[in-house]
Amino acid sequence: MNDNIEVLISKTNIQKRIKTLANEIDNDFKNEEIIFISVLKGAIYFTMDLLKNIKNENKIIDFIKVSSYKKTESTNKINFQLDVSIDLKNKNVIIIDDILDTGKTMHFLVNYIKNKGPKSIKTCVLLNKEERRIKNITANYVGFEIDNKFVVGYGLDFEEKYRFLPYIGVLKKELITH
Ligand code: IMP
Ligand code: MG
Predict the structure, then answer these.
(1) Residue 153 C-alpha to ligand 2 middle, in angstroms?
(2) Residue 121 pLDDT > 90, yes or no?
(3) How confident is residue 78, by pLDDT bands cut at 50, 70 and 90?
C-alpha cells in the first residue's frame, strides 16, 4: 500500500471485471480475427490481462503511441509517437486504452484507424470519466465508470510514476503541483 494513494478500485475487482469484459468480447466475435491495438503506455497492463482472458485463438496484438497529457491537465494537441505495424484493411479492430477522459485521444485514434480501411472498429477502455467528455465518443466496452478524479495505477501514471500499482488509486491532492 502506498500512503500517498487512496485505493479506488482494488486489484481483485479489476481482475474480476476484466474476466467479464473478455467474455463479452468472446461472445461478440467468437473466433473471428481481431487486431487489438493497445495505446501505449497507459493501456499495457489492462491489455495484457484482458488478452490473457480472451479465449479467441485469432487474437493479434499491435501498439500505437500517442500522448496528450501534461501533468494532470489534458492538452489540445495529440502527440503521435508510434504507428501500428500491421495492415488493418478489412480487419476487425479493437482499440484499447486505459481511460476515456475528454475523449480527444480516442476520437483522434478512431478517425485515424478508420482511414486504414478496417472491417470494423470498436473501442475498449478500463475506465470512463464521463463528466470530463469534450468529444462526442462512447466506448463499446467499459470496465468501470469513475468520478472526475485524477487516478493512477494499473498503467495510469502521474509524471510516469505509479503505473506499476496493481490497483487504481486516487493521488492525494497535496502531491499534485502544477
Ligand atoms: P483524453 O484524450 O482526455 O480522453 O485522455 C486520455 C488519456 O489521458 C489517457 O490515455 C490517459 O493516458 C490520460 N489520462 C486521462 N485521465 C487520466 C487520469 O485520471 N490519470 C492518468 N492519466 C489520465
Ligand atoms: Mg494514455
Answers:
(1) 12
(2) yes
(3) confident
DSSP the chain: --TTEEEEE-HHHHHHHHHHHHHHHHHHHTT--EEEEEEETTTHHHHHHHHHH---TTEEEEEEEEEEEETTEEEEEEEEEE---S--TT-EEEEEEEEESSSHHHHHHHHHHHTT--SEEEEEEEEE-GGG--S----SEEEEE--S--EEBTTB-BTTBSTT-SSEEEE-GGG---
Any ligand 1 atom below 6 A from CB of 113: no
Which mutation among 47, 70, 99 tests ligand 1's pocket best, with the greatest number of atoms within 8 A of CB?
99
Calculate how far, in angstroms, residue 65's C-alpha sits from the geometric centre of ligand 2.
8
Give the separation between CA 31 and CA 11, rounded to whole angstroms: 29
**Residues with C-beta atoms within 5 A of ion ligand 2:** 42
- Best-predicted range by mean pLDDT (1-5, 35-39, 64-68): 35-39
Question: How many beta carbons lie within 10 A of that of residue 105, not counting itself?
Answer: 24
Q: Is 101 annotated as catalytic?
A: yes
